[in-house]
Known about the structure:
alpha/beta, 15 helices, Aminopeptidase, Alpha-Beta Plaits
Amino acid sequence: xxxxxxxxxxxxxxxxxxxxxxxxxxxxxxxxxxxxxxxxxxxxxxxxxxxxxxxxxxxxxxxxxxxxxxxxxxxxxxxxxxxxxxxxxxxxxxxxxxxxxxxxxxxxxxxxxxxxxxxxxxxxxxxxxxxxxxxxxxxxxxxxxxxxxxxxxxxxxxxxxxxxxxxxxxxxxxxxxxxxxxxxxxxxxxxxxxxxxxxxxxxxxxxxxxxxxxxxxxxxxxxxxxxxxxxxxxxxxxxxxxxxxxxxxxxxxxxxxxxxxxxxxxxxxxxxxxxxxxxxxxxxxxxxxxxxxxxxxxxxxxxxxxxxxxxxxxxxxxxxxxxxxxxxxxxxxxxxxxxxxxxxxxxxxxxxxxxxxxxxxxxxxxxxxxxxxxxxxxxxxxxxxxxxxxxxxxxxxxxxxxxxxxxxxxxxxxxxxxxxxxxxxxxxxxxxxxxxxxxxxxxxxxxxxxxxxxxx
Length: 456
C-alpha cells in the first residue's frame, strides 16, 4: 500500500528530516524585524531538488512569502498547507539552557526558538509536499504550500496578503486548509482546533489635571481616574451581558465532553481536572469571554498629581461576540462614570477626559459545519492511526492566521493541527519532541495523498 510506503520512507529518512528542521531553527527570523526571506530561500532550494517550482514574493527588508504547489492544475479540489516562518524574539538569552538559535538535537527533542511555534509544522508541511512529488503518481487534485511572513505581528503582510494577492489572483478555490500551528496542549491527546477567539486590545488614556501633591484637590488625578475605570470592569461584564448570553459555538460542556472521552470514566476525568488546574483554566479560557489588564503607566514625580495615565486591556471574544459591540459596551461604562470620551489624546491643561485607541482587533472565527465534514473525519482517523489516540476538537483561546481564511469567506473549512505542545510556544528553552514532529509528517503526507487521489 502507498500509505505503508509513505510511513516506511519517513522512518528511513528521519535523520534527514530532523536535520532540515534544525537548519530552519538555526536561521534567525525573529519578528521584529522578520528576515523570513532567509527561510523562504532555504525552503525553495529544498523543494527545487524535487523539481517543485516555488514563487517568492519579497517585501520590506529581507522579508518574503512563499508559494509552491504540486502541479499547475487548480480547477478541481485544492488543499492548502499554511505555515509561518517568523518567530518571536528569545527574550533574555542568558536564561536559555541552549542558545535559542542552536537547534540542539538530543535523543528525543530539538531545542530552539520556533521549534514548536512553528518551524516544526512548517518543516513537516514542506517535507510532505516533497514526499508526494517523489511518489510520481497520477493526481487529480492539488496541494498548495503557503509559507508566510508576519504571523507573529498580525499576519497582514503574510497570510492576508497572500490570500488577496496570490491565491485569489490565481483563481484558486480551496476545499480544505490546515494551518500547522502546534496543537498539543499539556498532557492531553492531539487536538484539532476548529476556531479561535477574537481579540480587541484597547489602550486607555485618562487625562486629568496636574497640581502640587500638597494640594491634591486642586488637580484631577489621572491614576485615580484609571483606578475607577478598572474597578468598574465588573460593570463592563454587566454591559456585556446581552452578548455574553450568546451561546458559544462550542460550550464548556461540549469541550469537557470531548475531553472526557479520553478517560476511562467521568470520575477519572473530573479527578484529572482537579489535579490539573492549568487544563481547567485552559477550558475556561476557550469557552468564555475574558478580559485582562496587562499594562499600566502613570505619573512623572512623587510630588506631582499625575495628569495622564495609560493602560492596556486585552479582551478575548467568542464567536458571535464582535469587537464593535465590545468597544461600545466599554464606552458605556466610562460615560456612566461621568467621563467624556474624546477622539484625540490632546487637550487643554484644564480638560478632564478619556481617550481610547484600538491597538489590535480581530474577529473570532469558527468552522460551524465541522461535524458534517467527511474530510475532517478522515483526518481524525489518520491522526488516531499515527498517534495511537483519538484526537479531540476544541476552540483555541488565542489567535492565528486561520481567521483570515475563515472571515474573508475564502475557506471556512480551516483547521489548526501541527506538531508541538502549544504551551511551549514563546517560552524560554522552547523545544519540540522529535517523535511528534515525525508523526506530523506522516499525517500531513497521508492525508494529502488521500485528498489528491480522491481516496475517501
